[in-house]
Amino acid sequence: MSEAIVVGISDWKASTKKDEVFVTYALGSCVGICLRDKVSNIGGLSHIMLPYSKEFKDCGELNRMKFADTAILDMYKQLVKLGAKPENFTAKIAGGANMFQSSVGGSMGNIGQRNVAYVKEVLKQLKVPIIAEDTGLNYGRTVFFDLATNVMKVQSLGKEIKEL
Amino acid sequence: MEKAKSAYTELEIDVLRELGNIGAGNAATSLSSLLNEKVDMAVPNVRITSFDDAVKSFGGAEHLAAGVLLSFEGLEGDEASKDIRGMLLFIVEIESANDIVSMLTGGMYEPGSPEFEEMKLSALQEIGNIMGAAYINSIATLTGLGLNISVPYLAIDMVGAILSIPIAEFGALSDNVLFIEEGFIGQDKNINSSMSLFAGSETVDTIMRRLGIEV
Which residue of chain B is at minimal alpha-carbon distance from A106? Predict the structure, then answer.
């Protein structure tokens, strides 16, 4: 197996190589979106940090790879450009944890939850079915996505590796 | 990226470093008196880096650590401090976390058993809480700004996942994140840890103005 393509924070990568493997490390509140054409294997992995760019629409130029709405749409369009068929797309998603808890009760913010909700909304608008997910709870996840098998592998600290 | 970097002048960076020095100095003093151990610190680093580089500076995405996070903001109704928004992150290396809790409890803590694990989690939060309050109080005193600090929140996980919270909070508009990072080490004991202050540009501007620096 060749070296996995690393997807950074606020980044996405696409490939037409049938056995490409992508990896993104230590998703916390961020969400990883694995998108793939089930016929041609063309696919990509996106690592988004925030739900929607519209919230900041008056703030000048934004990094489109950072937000679920723009990142998923851009990756989707790029995959289609590379030859993928929209009707063949399926998605798998992971991340969106609520990382910080307090022993006096409560947790820090709900950005993970909002990210997951909006990723689902964007995929719904694009009519891409989500066929597997490992989201929420309170721990980080490293995600590998294999275009040959469509397997999303999720590694977390002190937990069994999940293959979804 | 260049835009975010040049948004801060040399003078502003120096002032942030000095704020970090004072804040972290007070935090180190409180850690030292809690543990009854000498705590050393170097000159703080003011970092303005990409998200991935920020994660690298904490040992890499999958590096395991304990993190205590506190957020702070201006007091309600205080016009001067209303734009202030920041977070303090106390990171403890895993091998140090057990030693620190053991020191705090006078050697009562034994790693492994469930009740002691529960005690470790509370103890780490409380240490972060006391250090964070010392840090923020010194900044409040220095700037005359009224500041409110949250309860402490804990995560023991990969640093990439831990950092996703402050990065998401302060990284929406820029592809860089600003933080003032200070490392602590023990003179004799293993207390490798660090405290970092994350803030947005509006907060930095407000602090500068309070200190009489044109922004």
Answer: B153
Q: What are phi and psi of A45, to 5 degrees?
A: -130, 130
Residues of chain A contacting residue B158, judged by C-beta atoms under 8 Å apart: 25-26, 28, 140, 142, 157
Which residues of chain B carry a pLDDT beneath 50? 1-5
What is the domain count for chain B?
1
Position A1 scores a pLDDT of 53
pLDDT score, position A2: 67
Q: What value does the mean pLDDT take over residues A2-11?
A: 93
CB B160 within 8 A of CB B61: yes
The structure tokens listed for A38 are 């089930």
CATH number corresponding to A5-163: 3.30.1330.200
Q: How far is A155 from chain B (nearest CA, A)?
A: 10
DSSP string for residues in B82-128 = TT-EEEEEEEEEHHHHHHHHHHHTTT---TTSHHHHHHHHHHHHHHH
Indicate yes or no: CB of B62 within 8 angstroms of CB of A103. Answer: no
Domain CATH for B104: 3.40.1550.10
